[in-house]
Amino acid sequence: MSEMLQTTVEPVQDTARPRQRRNAVVRTLTNPLGAPAAVVLVVVLIGVAFASLLAPYPLDHAALAEAYDPPSATHPLGVDSAGRDVLTRMLYGAQNTLGGAALALAVAMLIGIPAGLVAGYFGRGFDSVSNWVVDLTMALPPMLVLLASRAVIGPTVWALMIILGILAAPSFYRLVRGVVVNVRNELYVDAAKVSGLSPARIMSRHVFTVVRAPIIIQIALVAGVALGLQAGLEFIGVGSSPSTPTWGAMLNEGFQNIHRAPLLMLWPALALGLTSAAFVLLAVALRDALESRGAAPVSARSRRARARFRTPDIAQGDDRSDLLSIRGLTVAYPDDQGAEREVVHGIDLDVRPGEILGLVGESGSGKSQTAFSALGIIPSTGRVTGGSVLVGGTEVVGLDETGWRAMRGTTVAYVPQEPMSNLDPSFTIGAQLMEPLRQVLGLSRAEARARALELLRAVEITDPERILRAYPHEISGGMAQRVLIAGAMSCDPRLLIADEPTTALDVTVQAEVLELLRHLQQQRGMGVLLVTHNFGVVADLCDRVAVMEHGRIVESGPVTDVLTEPSHPYTRRLLDAMLEDIPIPEPITAEGGRA
Amino acid sequence: MIVYIVRRLGAGVGLVVSISILAFLLLGLSGQDVGRALLGINADEAAVAAKNHALGVDRPLIVQYVDWLLHAVRGDFGRSWFTSETVTTSIAQRLPVTLSLVVGVTIVTAVVSVALGVWAATRGGAVDRFVQILAIAGYALPGFLVTLFLVVVFAVNLRWFPAVGYIPFAQSPTGWLSTITLPIIALSIGSIAGMAQQVRSSVLDVQNRDFVRTLRTRGLRTRSILWRHVMRNASAPALTIIGLQFVGLLGGAVLVEQIFGLPGIGNMTVQYTTRGDVPVIMGLLMVSVIGVVIVNLLVDVLIGLLNPKARATA
Description:
The structure holds 2 protein chains of 2 kinds.
Chain A: H1 18-30, H2 34-49, H3 51-54, H4 86-122, H5 124-138, H6 142-153, H7 157-184, H8 187-194, H9 199-235, H10 247-256, H11 263-292, H12 298-305, E1 324-334, E2 340-351, E3 356-360, H13 367-373, E4 383-391, E5 394-395, H14 401-407, E6 412-415, H15 429-440, H16 445-458, H17 464-469, H18 477-489, E7 495-499, H19 507-524, E8 527-532, H20 535-541, E9 544-549, E10 552-558, H21 559-564, H22 569-579
Parallel strand pairs in A: 3-8, 3-9, 6-7, 7-8
Antiparallel strand pairs in A: 1-2, 1-4, 4-5, 9-10
Helix pairs in contact in A: 1-2, 1-11, 2-4, 2-11, 4-5, 4-7, 4-9, 6-7, 7-9, 8-9, 9-10, 9-11, 10-11, 15-16, 16-18, 18-19
Chain B: H1 2-28, H2 34-39, H3 45-55, H4 61-72, H5 87-123, H6 125-140, H7 143-157, H8 173-207, H9 210-217, H10 222-260, H11 265-273, H12 278-306, H13 308-313
Helix pairs in contact in B: 1-12, 5-6, 5-8, 5-10, 6-8, 7-8, 7-10, 8-10, 10-11, 10-12, 11-12
């Protein structure tokens, strides 16, 4: 439990406008977790504030004759082992218990927040010194430090709570520092600096508005943890003197008398559990309220909005390729409201053995989704909502993972766009090349190694022995792309799907990799679906081309025809852009990335 | 890798020494008159002075510290002021109890958290919701309250386990198991709550990385992608959490050992610190901090072994 003193909530970006922020309070209080938590805290706080009014007896009242009496009209919660009224002690105990936790919290905030602001804003010397102090504090078990401090300063729980506050300060420090470091580099802070505002003004005006929400959440969390530790100290009897009522001490008394009067333990346990839980649940509800900003629960609606699967009308005598043939393919993703939004609207295409088909379009045109559907790797949120995809003559729409495994590597293989992120950073190139050889083709270790070397030579890597032993971060991007092509070739696929295979590479390396792809394709007689936004690549490599715009194929045909006499205005625009050497714009798509 | 370990080790030694200086100063500044505390209010001044001289506490603090440090590096933490026992021996006697507790908790936490976290990440559904609720509950309920609940239910009412006491493993393995099981479960619940959630989010995070998609297109078995590639890449954040939790575990052990009456170093801490026995407090503090440093070093080495990039850049 005490390790949570040092954990920090994920900074929540409170980008809500003031009006929405007021809504966040409402949402917190109407949240199924937040509402009861708030009620519990209000009840407890009323108890704390009016303890002396609400308590049925004075604090020092004791009647030994009534010891262990069960709850009754005169003693609503019963009587403890020393003949004291339990309700009275619970109320005064709340004062001491919550007071202790509040003190710890206040100290933690007073140290942690200003230190975090300064360290994050100014950096440099102060930053490294305070980071060192934080590391030091984090290596200390809080419970041990508290016990050791008690030896020095004696049995005063308030002093211990100050020390607990110091130990909890890093959780605020790290939170605030992290957020401030991010904000410091924002443009509006630079603007404020240029306009001559003092650092203090900037921090209080701009920075504090950003860290406010995460701090509130962290307060609730630390309050809950401090409460638990405070009660823990009291429970083992190292806190205040025995006559001072606290929930922890009452728990201990109840635990000692568990056989004689189990209820004595129940009351403080309930109070402590409920209060502590209320703090944390309130924090969770606050976080949810600030994070969600009104997004509706998705699942129920999306299920309703799911379109029925559309079976394509395939004409009699349709000449479908036995390598890759797509008819009426539609792909959809859920949008913010949970309804499915179609991104590919029913496309047809064929790739025949030995042929290279270029699939051209801007980012977001749906070309990558089309390619993914021929590999069964559409991200799990999206799905194929209609159509037919034949890969090597097998219908793959609705195929399960086992079925796919029989096709992948041997029938169809994949060359991705970004070489570095597509290699597992934790394994050597050799291990990554050999694994499919052993699993898919069932080769022995030695055979797989020999084959891997052969593959690396085939992709024109001059020092295959060294590359085999290298980790991905030790090789260049161009080299990594060759390795990925080698990986795609490893099980002799009949169809290669290459998704922008040269986009992430340097211009000189691009030409080499294209040359390599052409060479391998001719040598092995593979069919290739080449996804690209670059007509230069198409002109260089492809036999036929299909142009995609907004999820539809607007034009397709032999490369020479499309390049010389484009019939669709969109194709013409793309061509013009290329001829004028203007990079084709890459608009940010609704999905927030490339499609 | 060697350079990496040596550097981490150097940082660890620096940390231990800094904390020892800080603790020694703070404990020394308390101005406690040890001789008086030992001999009682009626002892005469000369006897108190003689006692203080015998304990060496009449020397300047810096001399005391250097003396302490020179002995400490040889594993000698001096003798308790109150019982005259050798601190090292007392700690060595109690350490196995706390170690079996802490190691047991770490193993249980790792196994259960990986199982729950991976299940939640890959299958979703009820297990996923359970892991989320557990994570909140782990935060929301003080650990010792959960422990008390377990004692009341399983020891007091059901009588499945003894409520208090400890039987050493050497004396009776089954007895050891019966006395240590409930404490381990009690301490594990909180750790699992934090860790399972971390495993879940790490696995989800790695599963969405590009290379996992590419590995799928190579025709690899789903299981081998998950356990070889995803788990290895997801392990670093989870291991870091184990290191962080270890610090808290030592604190949790204090409460759990009190509740179950286990004669471990947590129990010893409560006993001796309340009397202000500085040599014992220093010894306990050092053993704990060294434990924390060793665990974090192990975590760093493991992360380095599993992650070649961390090894290269560290």
